[in-house]
């Protein structure tokens, strides 16, 4: 490992919110998320303007940073996507997708009052960022990822829950996960174990043909002990 020669006497400093060290750092247990979060703070601090954001392709173009995410290109891309997803799910970053003339562009904002106002303005069509070389921009209405779905419907996201949800995403179709979360809400069983039971049952026996059949299966069937009547 190459040694670090030390910081110069005078160098450019960046601002990191104090809450990062008190409310976020103690709970971040994923290296990719930590690297991506600190990198975004650094890059965004260098930008000028009332509203600053970072494009995903800007991160991808930084070879020095990307090389530290993994030995191969595939591993680097996976680590970057994982880190960004976790940072967004945790609420550190806010993400918006817009369609340019030739490609989908991912924009990331720090979750501050100004960042939240910018994202809301984009989603409502009241404001659109100026992007070099992009003459036509259209906001893409993205389906909520499973992390946001869980937080909005079940409860707070912990590192263990985030890892489990990511395992779900790699094992089951996203539509199944969305429907399993919906079933948990409808049956008032707001537990990850219940969602997992539904997914395992569907994988073994197939999804039910109706919502009523699905509800009855879990109220009176094998996983009825997950429900408190």
Structure description:
The structure is a single chain. With about 230 residues, the protein is an alpha+beta fold. It has 2 domains: about 20-140, Arc Repressor Mutant, subunit A (Orthogonal Bundle), CATH 1.10.10; about 145-225, Arc Repressor Mutant, subunit A. The protein contains 11 helices and 4 strands; from the N terminus they run ααβαααββαβααααα. It has helices spanning about 20-25, 30-45, 55-60, 65, 75-90, 115-125, 145-155, 160-170, 175-185, 190-205, 210-220, and strands at about 55, 95-100, 105-110, 140. The chain has a 4-stranded antiparallel β-sheet, sandwiched between helices. Strand 2 and strand 3 form a beta hairpin. Helix 9 packs across helix 10. The relative contact order is 0.08. Mean pLDDT is about 80; it is low at about 140-145 and about 220-225.
Structure keywords:
229 residues; alpha+beta; Arc Repressor Mutant, subunit A; 2 domains; four-stranded antiparallel beta sheet; 11 helices; 4 strands; 8% strand; globular
What is the element layout, followed by pairings?
Blueprint: H1 18-24, H2 31-45, E1 54-55, H3 56-60, H4 63-67, H5 73-90, E2 93-99, E3 104-110, H6 113-124, E4 138-139, H7 146-153, H8 159-171, H9 174-186, H10 192-205, H11 211-220
Antiparallel strand pairs: 1-3, 2-3, 2-4
Helix pairs in contact: 2-5, 7-9, 9-10
Straight-line distance between termini: 58 Å
- The CATH architecture assignment of the largest domain turns out to be Orthogonal Bundle
Q: Return the string of H and E elements.
A: HHEHHHEEHEHHHHH
How many strands?
4
């Amino acid at each position: 490992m190459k040694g670090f020669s030390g910081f110069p006497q005078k160098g450019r400093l960046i601002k990191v919110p104090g809450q990062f060290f008190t409310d976020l750092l103690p709970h971040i247990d994923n290296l990719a998320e930590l690297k991506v979060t600190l990198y975004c703070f650094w890059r965004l601090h260098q930008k000028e303007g009332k509203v600053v954001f970072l494009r995903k392709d800007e991160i991808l173009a930084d070879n020095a940073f990307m090389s530290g995410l993994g030995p191969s290109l595939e591993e680097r891309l996976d680590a970057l996507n994982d880190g960004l997803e976790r940072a967004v799910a945790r609420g550190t970053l806010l993400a918006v997708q817009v369609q340019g003339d030739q490609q989908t562009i991912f924009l990331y904002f720090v979750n501050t009052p100004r960042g939240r106002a910018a994202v809301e303005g984009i989603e409502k069509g009241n404001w659109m960022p100026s992007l070099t070389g992009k003459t036509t921009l259209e906001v893409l209405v993205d389906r909520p990822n499973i992390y946001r779905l869980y937080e909005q419907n079940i409860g707070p996201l912990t590192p263990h829950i985030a890892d489990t949800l990511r395992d779900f995403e790699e094992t089951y179709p996203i539509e199944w996960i969305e429907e399993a979360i919906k079933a948990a809400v409808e049956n008032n069983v707001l537990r990850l174990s219940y969602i997992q039971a539904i997914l395992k049952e569907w994988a073994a026996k197939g999804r039910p043909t109706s919502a009523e059949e699905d509800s009855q299966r879990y109220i009176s069937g094998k996983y009825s002990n997950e429900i408190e009547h």
